[in-house]
């Protein structure tokens, strides 16, 4: 019987510490994926200074898998990277500005800066910003996001 309890402790410790363990659901805690509600809210999120990974989705079987991956990645990279999901049928204007035809797709928005040229602005209280956008084309997993962040120099965790 003592071996059984040792084995149970060992397995529970393994599940708690192993990042790429499969088979059992992970306890991710409350959802950290932000659901898109407005462009204003999105701009405020960018101004917090964190990179924002945005998944542009439509309803479908693949979206269910994508939701699980986003939940896992958002739990792993919180609070250094924010994850947002946009349901394109609900917010077509925001999705159409990305000029992509195949869904779902993921983009990383980071480093907002005030635009050097404000151009013609109807309202003097409006300030234009330039944001760097990178298309995500890595493996769709927490590991894929980590490699993507490394490749583009995005700080996704505390420096060691």
SSE order and pairing:
Elements: H1 2-17, E1 33-35, H2 39-47, E2 52-57, H3 61-77, E3 82-87, H4 92-96, E4 105-114, E5 129-135, H5 142-151
Parallel strand pairs: 1-3, 2-3
Antiparallel strand pairs: 2-4, 4-5
- What's the overall geometry? globular
Largest sheet: 5 strands, mixed
β-strand percent reads 15-25%
Low-confidence stretches: none
Mean pLDDT: 81
The side-by-side strand order for the widest beta sheet comes to 1-3-2-4-5
Judged by helices, strands and strand pairing, the structural class is: alpha/beta
Number of helices: 5
Helix and strand sequence: HEHEHEHEEH
Terminal-residue CA separation: 41 Å
Q: Indicate the radius of gyration in whole angstroms.
A: 19 Å
Number of strands: 5
Helix content: 25-40%
What kind of assembly state do the chains in view correspond to?
A: single chain
Explain what the structure shows.
With 160 residues, this protein is of the alpha/beta class. It has five helices and five strands. The chain has helices spanning 2-17, 39-47, 61-77, 92-96, 142-151, and strands at 33-35, 52-57, 82-87, 105-114, 129-135. A five-stranded mixed sheet has the order 1-3-2-4-5. Helix 3 (61-77) links the parallel strand 2 (52-57) and strand 3. The longest helix has 17 residues, at 61-77.
């Amino acid at each position: 019987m003592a071996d059984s309890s040792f084995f149970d402790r060992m397995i529970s410790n393994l599940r708690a510490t192993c990042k790429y363990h499969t088979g059992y659901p992970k306890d991710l805690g409350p959802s950290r994926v932000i659901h898109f509600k407005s462009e204003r809210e999105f701009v405020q999120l960018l101004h917090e200074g964190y990179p924002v990974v945005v998944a542009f989705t439509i309803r479908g079987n693949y979206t269910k898998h994508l939701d699980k991956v986003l939940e896992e990645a958002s739990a792993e990279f919180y609070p250094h990277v924010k994850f947002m999901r946009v349901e394109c049928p609900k917010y077509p204007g925001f999705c159409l500005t990305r000029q992509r035809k195949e869904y779902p797709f993921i983009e990383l928005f980071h480093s907002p800066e005030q635009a050097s040229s404000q151009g013609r602005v109807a309202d003097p209280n409006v300030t234009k910003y330039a944001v760097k956008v990178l298309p995500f084309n890595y493996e769709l997993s927490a590991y894929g996001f980590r490699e993507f962040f490394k490749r583009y120099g995005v700080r996704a965790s505390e420096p060691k």
